[in-house]
Amino acid sequence: LEDNIAAADPALREAAVYGFELIATGPRSTNENRSAVITSIGKQVAGSDIPGKLLYIKTLARITDAAEKRNEGKGDQKSLELAAGAILPLVEPAQPPEVRLGALEAVSKMCAPGVCKRLVQLAVTEQGELRDKARQGIAATALPDAAGELLMKMSSDDKALAEEAKRAFLRIRDSAPSA
After folding, report:
1. Contacts from 97-101 at CB under 8 Å and sequence distance 24+?
2. Who's near 64: CB < 8 A, 6+ residues apart?
3. Residue 46: pLDDT above 90?
4. CA dist., res. 112 & res. 126, Å (int)
5. How much is the average pLDDT of 127-145?
6. At what angle do helices 50-70 and 10-25 cross, to 10 degrees?
7. Does residue 7 or residue 92 have the better pLDDT?
């Protein structure tokens, strides 16, 4: 599978990626093999063509969703971080719009360090659908690393952003261990 994951033939590439997905989400999958699969797919993302990027994004999102469901909402933090790390660069303006939107939809569900902060930045700088998708993911991805950014945006003139920042900050506060 490893040799075919970056195949120029789209059908061969898709079959290899699907095989990797089965390994990562099957009944015998472990956190270790899931991380290995995500790492293998993640290495291919940046240099791929548009259909390949979209395939990799969707596959990584399905793998992390399956881990979340299997672990009863606790997820697999290492897998989330690896997947988010592979997908997050694809939200950058240099990427084609369909790749950016697909990447944004995927990372908006990944509660991993750096994601919320980047979504807040996109909610400020982007327009239209990209801005709306970024806003929608802020609360779901909120972690303590974004607290400062969220506090600043709670007083934003953009009322929708201010409300999402407040929801996200409250989520962080409510999930913090009591002293």
Report:
1. 98/50, 98/54, 99/50, 99/53, 99/54, 99/57, 100/130, 101/129, 101/130, 101/133
2. 38, 75, 76, 79, 80, 83, 109, 110
3. no
4. 21
5. 95
6. 10
7. 92
